[in-house]
Amino acid sequence: MWATPLRRAADPQENAAAAGRRRRWPPRKAPAPVFSLRQVQYFVAVAENGSLTRAAHQLSISLSTLTEAVHALERDLGLKLVERHPRGVQLTLKGQQFLRHATKILADVADSRRALAEETAPVGGTVQIGVTALVAGYVFSDLLARFRRAHPAVSVAAVEDGREYLEHLLINGELDVAVVVLSTATATDAFETEVLEVSPNRLWLPLGHRLCQEAEVPLEAIGRERQIVLTVDEIEARADAHWRAHGLKPPIAFRTRSVEAVRSLVATGAGVAILPDLVYRPWSLEGDRIEVRPIAEPLPTVEVGLVWRRGSPLARAARDFLAAARAQRSARSRG
After folding, report:
1. Could you give the angle at the alpha carbon of 187 between the alpha carbons of 295 and 192, nearest 5°?
2. Number of domains in the chain
3. Which domain holds residue 71?
4. Which of 108, 166, 201, 319 has the most crowded Cβ, counting Cβ within 10 A?
5. How does pLDDT run across 238-256, given as a tens digit for each residue?
6. Between the CA of residue 153 and those of 122, 123, 148, 216, what are the distances in Å?
7. Whose CA is closest to 225, among 246, 199, 248, 258?
8. CA 316, chain centre distance (Å)
9. CA pair distance 325, 291, nearest whole angstrom
10. How far apart are CA 146 and CA 138, in angstroms?
């Protein structure tokens, strides 16, 4: 017959080591309370009304639905929040503490909803914009199309005039923003400016002109040619400054405010012109070719930019127009 082995007496040291091993495992954490925003809304209504019945009436729900929601909230939190009494309900100490958090939760949610609604809702109103002549035909049309696609609810009122008069309208608050050919005179304490496009000047020539053979054309050679002069946006004044700086006085064949007239006159051989790249197109309206060549001497570039009154708070629609202009600048730089 097999003898039953005797069980060895427990060693106190081994028992202590085993207990230590068991204690090394982290204790299980109690699950975090989970409650809904609706439960918080119901609890706040109960606290504000001091009565389940009045709170249910205010919320347009049944008394049983409200009571169950408050009980579920208490279960989720593991706290007693409300005590009933003959005249209604009264918050416990924990209920009063939770009420401060609950009202903040509802206020934060309301603020978030308002902020999101403001960001997504179409902005109405009107933005008053001024443009100079070159900008109107060669920059503003694309910019306006981009802005209208992004903000169809905004009405745009635009006026074309000279830079100085547009700045006068900005000072008087009759314009929100202007898109102009910038001048050193614009950089005053009265205005904020931001460059959108920098355009170099080049020489315009008719097809087959002798200067088309040159990789770069010196101003001295250009000065011997008859000039077609554009008189808008200070283009003529800038050209006069170039000629004076180099001691030249070229013959003037024609002065005009129309870029298309310059294009046609150059293309038919009536003269040459120095104009910025932003208005260059290779063909005249009659279908004649216009060539361009770099100028050997460095000439100041033409800058198109935004101008608005310094220190004047801009309306939302005007700020959105500035953002659209910056987005167009970024798109052109990537292209």
Report:
1. 120
2. 3
3. 37-118
4. 166
5. 999 989 999 999 999 999 9
6. 6, 6, 8, 49
7. 248
8. 11
9. 30
10. 14
- Judged by phi (left if over 0) then psi (alpha if -120 to 50, else beta), residue 13 lies in alpha
Q: State the pairing for strand pair 126-131/177-181.
A: parallel
Are residue 266 and residue 226 in the same domain, yes or no? yes
User: For the segment 78-119, what is each residue's pLDDT rounded down to a tens digit?
Assistant: 889 999 888 888 889 898 889 888 888 888 887 777 667 655
Where are the strands (E) in 166-301, listed by range? 177-181, 191-199, 201-206, 227-230, 252-256, 273-276, 290-293
pTM: 0.62
Q: How many CB atoms lie within 10 A of CB 328?
A: 18
* φ and ψ at residue 185, rounded to 5 degrees: -70, -20
Which neighbouring-strand residues pair with 79? none
Q: Which helix (H) or strand (E) holds 84?
A: strand 82-85
Where on the phi/psi map is residue 302: left (φ > 0), alpha (ψ -120 to 50), or beta?
beta
- Of 82, 97, 118, the domain-final residue: 118
Query: Has residue 23 been placed in a domain?
Result: no
CATH of residue 110's domain is 1.10.10.10
Q: Are strands 88-91 and 82-85 parallel, antiparallel or unpaired?
A: antiparallel
191 and 308 belong to one structural domain? yes
Rounded Cα gap, residues 290 and 275, in angstroms? 12
CA angle 318, 112, 147 (to 5 degrees): 25
Judge whether 152 lies within some domain.
yes
- CATH code for the domain in which residue 235 is found: 3.40.190.10
Of 100, 118, 136, the last residue of a domain is 118
User: What is the tens place of the pLDDT at every residue in 194-214?
Assistant: 999 999 999 999 999 999 999
CA distance 161 to 181: 11
- Alpha carbon distances (Å) from 244 to 131, 162, 329: 29, 24, 33
Using alpha carbons, select from 204, 199, 225, 221 the residue that is nearest to residue 299. Answer: 199
